[in-house]
Design a protein that fits this description.
By secondary structure, the protein is mainly alpha-helical. 78% of the residues lie in helices and 0% in strands. Helix 1 (2-15) runs parallel beside helix 4 (47-56), helix 4 (47-56) packs parallel to helix 6 and helix 5 (62-73) packs antiparallel against helix 6 (81-111).
């Protein structure tokens, strides 16, 4: 089980660095949730919360937060409920920061060219 998990975690971390990777990673997690939950979601393992965190921590829009909440609303997250709540809070914070400072940051960056 661990030998399969190491490449999964490495792939999740690597893909979330870029915008399209974030979207891909979250879509992959949703598509494979049943399999992941079956393998890593029972027994109080730290694995499921980490997989949830890695696949959601770089999402940055209100729509992303709503998608994460909606996805986990009807799915069991034994051992990962706190991680889901923290992920949603971080996504909403990033969205608020982007809404507040995004235009000013963009203008400043353009001035630096």
């Amino acid at each position: 089980m661990l030998t399969l998990l190491v490449p999964i975690v490495a792939a999740l971390v690597a893909t979330t660095i870029k915008v399209h990777g974030r979207e891909f990673c979250w879509a992959w997690m949703k598509e494979h949730w049943s399999e992941l939950f079956e393998k890593y979601g029972t027994g109080g393992s730290f694995t499921l919360p980490r997989l949830v965190s890695y696949s959601t921590k770089h999402l940055v829009t209100v729509a992303d937060a709503e998608d994460v909440e909606s996805f986990f609303k009807d799915r069991p997250v034994q051992g990962a409920a706190r991680t889901v709540a923290q992920s949603v809070e971080a996504i909403r914070t990033a969205a608020a920061l982007q809404a507040r400072d995004g235009a000013a940051l963009k203008a400043w960056l353009l001035e630096q060219q």
